[in-house]
Amino acid sequence: MSDQPCPACGLPVSAAAINVGRCPCCEHSFLEPTVPASPPVAQTPIEPQLEPASHRNRVLIGVAACVLVVIGLIGTWRLLKEPVEPNEFAETVPTAPPVPAGRPSLETTPGGERLPPVREIAPAPRPVNGQRPDGIAIQPAPIPVAPEPRAKPEAGKVEFINVFETPERRLNNPTGTAEVLELNAQDRLVLTGKVKVLKIGFVDGEAVLDASGLDVEEIIFTENVNGSAVVKLNAPGGKVRITRQINGSARLTIHAPDGEVVFAGEDDACLTGGSVVAVTAKRVDIQCLMNGGTRVEATLTCGGSLRTRLMDGGAAVRYKPSAGNEAELKIETGELRGGATVRPTK
Known about the structure:
Layout: E1 4-5, E2 12-13, H1 15-20, H2 53-81, E3 158-161, E4 168-180, E5 188-200, E6 208-221, E7 230-234, E8 239-242, E9 251-263, E10 270-271, E11 276-286, E12 289-290, E13 295-308, E14 316-321, E15 330-332, E16 341-344
Parallel strand pairs: 3-4, 4-5, 5-6, 6-7, 6-8, 7-9, 8-9, 9-11, 10-12, 11-13, 13-14, 13-15, 14-16
Antiparallel strand pairs: 1-2
């Protein structure tokens, strides 16, 4: 009896060990019932594996590349072998006829005609030591000099003028305002230059305000003019508005040709006490009370007008046209009392 494999460990077991009933290696008992082996499973035949798709693609790409190279070589060989046909749309450049040997080369026109040779023009001679070839000296070009910037007045600036600081003041404020503070006793203030608005405060005693050299667009009296004060103003084409009293023996001179002068009819506004007012303007409007021997002398420019309200106590208004003014004047007279008069100057 030959050796048989152990069903547990698979090693060969002798016949003597089988008779004993136990495997000498794994001590498997041969006396225990053994599980019948399962029937053999039929194996499915293995199909042959195909080559990967990536390998096939590389092969196809290589074949296509070779075909394209061959086609390109064939096309190039045919282009080189065939003669080039002239392009009917290409511009043709006429060629010049051959020039005989021994003669200078001349340019020709498309029709074959020869052109005269081009002459070279010598450059103009350069000046030597600042002189031209004819001996005339060359004057250097003047160097432009920028003008010095002028100081611009501040827009809307307000200047307060005190006679104790300066008795004479030149203004350069065409867009701003100048305000004259109080003048008393024998104070004297002279103003020149230009300003947009001039405000005049209290003027009393023998004080003098001379603004005849000051160009103003608008003048406003904010306080009274009393005593024997003297005020001279200049507002060509501008406006002068008086809202307070002109009293005592005060002297007021207003030069405002083509402008207007208004004596406003405020509660305490009046022309009284023997004061004298000389006015040159296009429009003079006296809306306040005139009394106490006050006198107004009005010179009216072209198209001028004069209007008065209540006059009393010997007040007088005299008017006349300015020199060269032949236009008719418009005069409106209010109520006259106590010998007050309004009439033209003789």
